[in-house]
Structures are given as C-alpha cells and as structure tokens.
Amino acid sequence: MRTVRFPAPSKEYDVVIGNGAVSVLGTEAKKLCPGALKALIVTETNVAPLYLDRVKNELEGAGIEVTDYVFEAGEKSKGIETIAAMWNRMAEAGFTRTDFVVGLGGGVTTDMAGFAAATFLRGISVIQIPTSLLAMVDASIGGKTGIDIAKGKNQVGAFWQPSIVIEDISFLKTLPDEVFTEGMGEVVKHAFIVDPELLEKLERANGSIREDEALLEDIVAMNVSDKASVVKEDENDNGRRQILNYGHTIGHVIERDSGYTKPHGICVAKGMGIMIDACVRAGFLDAGTAERMKDLMKLYKLPVSDDITPEAIVAGAMNDKKKRGGSISVILVNKPGQAEIKKMSPEELLRFLSK
Ligand SMILES: NC(=O)c1ccc[n+]([C@@H]2O[C@H](COP(=O)([O-])OP(=O)(O)OC[C@H]3O[C@@H](n4cnc5c(N)ncnc54)[C@H](O)[C@@H]3O)[C@@H](O)[C@H]2O)c1
Ligand SMILES: [Zn+2]
To answer: What is the distance in A from the centroid of ligand 1 to the CA of 132?
Structure first.
C-alpha cells in the first residue's frame, strides 16, 4: 500500500493505493471530515452487491451513520434526476455541512458523487473510492465532477476536489475484461504525454498486467502521479491541463457519433491512433516512434484507427466544448513524454488530418 500526494492548487489530498486500501476509510474519514455524523454512499447496481457492505462497515465501525443511494449502472443514469435524488436523500436524512458523500464505483459514479457533494448545501466533503481502472487513473482524481445533458456529455459540472481518494486494487478483480481494456486507453495516454518510464514498463509487461497485483499497483500509482504533475500546474484547465485531452478531440467525436455506445477509452485510443498517423505525415513524429506507440496500444488490445473522415472530425470538433473561439486546441505528441498544445483553425485541422 502506498500514498501519492495530489497537490491540486485549491486543495492537496492523499491518494491511497493498494490491496485492501479500503481499510483506511473509517480512520481517514474521522480525521478529514471532523464533526461528521453522517455519510451518503453513492453507488450503482453492479458495484453495490460487490462492495457496498464492505464500505458501509468501515464507516459504521468509525461511528458514522450511513445512508446509501444506489442508481442503475451506466452512463444513461448520469443526469440531473439522479443528482436530485441524492440531494433529497441527504436532506431527508438531515445532513448538515459537516457530513459527507462517498463515491463508490466507476467514473460515472465518482463524477456524480463529486457533483452532488459540490452542490449540496453549497458544498460538502467527498471521499472517492474508484472501482474501475479508468476511475482510478483518471476520473476520480483532479476534481472535475459533473453530469450529462441532452446536448452533450459532461456539459454541467463543477471543480470540486475530494478529501481523499482510496484506490483498492483488489476491487479491480471483478472488472469485466473489456472495461479494463477501456481504462488502458487513459493509461497509455499518460505514458505518451508525460511518462516514458511508464511506457517502458508497459512494454516490458508485454500486455499482461491484470494478474500481477504489485505491478498493477505500481502502474496505477504512476498514473496518479502523472495526472497530479499536470493538474498541479493548471487545475482549471486553461492551459497545460489540456494535454490530458490527447486523443480526445477526435475520440469525443467518434464517441458522440456512436450515440455514446462506443466506450470512452476505446474512442480515445482511436483518436490517438489517428493523431499518430497525422503527426508522422506532417513530420512532427518519426515513423519508428509512431510504430512503437501503436504497437503498445495493440499489445493492450486497443484499436489504433477508425474509418471516420477528416471532414466529420472537423465538423464534430467545432461543436465540442473544448474549442475556444474559432480555433480548436489539438494535442500533439512529438516524442513519448513530450506533448504540445497547438491551436488550429478548422481549415488547418482538415489539412492536417487529410491523407
Ligand atoms: N472527471 C474526470 O476527470 C473524468 C475523466 C475521465 C472520464 N470521466 C467519466 O468517467 C466515466 C467513465 O468511467 P468508467 O469507465 O469507470 O464508467 P462506469 O462508471 O460506467 O464503469 C464502467 C463499468 O464497469 C462497472 N464496474 C465498475 N467497477 C467495477 C468493479 N470493480 N467490478 C465490476 N464492475 C465494475 C460499472 O458498473 C460499469 O458497468 C464517463 O462518464 C466519463 O465522462 C471523468
Ligand atoms: Zn478520457
């Protein structure tokens, strides 16, 4: 078990990572949420039967009264009605500003638990317990919380940092293979944009990291540090944090065009593959490195291309909330560990992506 400090400018907190890490919950909650009498555990129908009792026992053991709210698993629940139900549950249970929320689940859960906490009584504490690989390495850390609306994903939300993030590696055992692979999309992304050492480690592991708990703990911890190194410089996503969107400008368009039926991490991988090819054509990336990057993605069963047209990408990117003014921020990797943000006009992006 180990602790990585997450130094977000607005709030520094610990990310505790390891097999059995959930056992620190009771003590840490008492310490970090002084005066708390009540907690709302937010979780969903797949995760509740597996881990809800365990988490509840930890809190009750520390003398905290627990209420839970279990929603139907899946992105389709990530809306305002689910949040309203959480607000009502807390109000009915008589929560005050010193009480707190626990998010137990994948990124859908941690995004919503964070948003409910950010908004209830103008903000109460949240403790995140991510259970998917994607939520451990990405969604539950860094303080972005939110929900979807009809017009698009994550269009409403708040920056709200957790008090602590507890990542119990043993929870990953029950994660379906395809959901694990999806999380690898963000892991590989971190390796490409900031962490050549992680890239080498993933190459050496030769595609099998699930079975080796110590290795998995290492890899998760490296990813948390990677994200921390970016967020500490730009918590509110106005500058360098945008490099975390590598593969996402294109990935989001593919995801949206599929009506959100294609998983996020898979779409990001496709976006990275398309960017790698475009960078080689434009002379930003040498062919050998590009080959190495795509080989790594294939090793972890990620796709490296998609048949979306450059025209469809540009049209979709122009609707994305990440576009600023008339230009689109495109993230390029010229060498593992070196990402750069380049603003392109729609015409420039079209030229860049066209063969
Ligand atoms: N806030 C951020 O910075 C950020 C970053 C990336 C993604 N996200 C958000 O995260 C969401 C995607 O996260 P996700 O892939 O974790 O989705 P998810 O929460 O839907 O979880 C994926 C699937 O795995 C299941 N699951 C989770 N943990 C499990 C476990 N231990 N055992 C068995 N099944 C388990 C879930 O029930 C679900 O079916 C999206 O809504 C995305 O917008 C947020
Ligand atoms: Zn992502």
So the answer is: 6
Query: What tens digit of pLDDT does each residue of 262-280 get?
Result: 999 999 999 999 999 999 9
- pLDDT tens digits for 68-115? 999 999 999 999 999 999 999 999 999 999 999 999 999 999 999 999
Pocket test for ligand 1, best of 115, 134, 236 (most atoms within 8 A of CB): 134
3-state secondary structure 95-143: CCCCCEEEEEECHHHHHHHHHHHHHHHHCCEEEEEECCHHHHHHHCCCC
Residues 145 and 118: beta-carbon distance below 8 Å: yes
Q: Which residue spans of the chain are classified as CATH 3.40.50.1970? A: 2-174
CATH architecture, range 2-174: 3-Layer(aba) Sandwich (3.40)
Range(s) for CATH 1.20.1090.10 in the chain? 178-353
Of the listed ligands, the closest to the CA of 268 is: 2
- What is the 186 CA–ligand 2 centroid distance (Å)? 6
Supply the CATH classification number for the domain 178-353: 1.20.1090.10
pLDDT at 325 over 80: no
Instruction: Give the pTM.
Output: 0.96
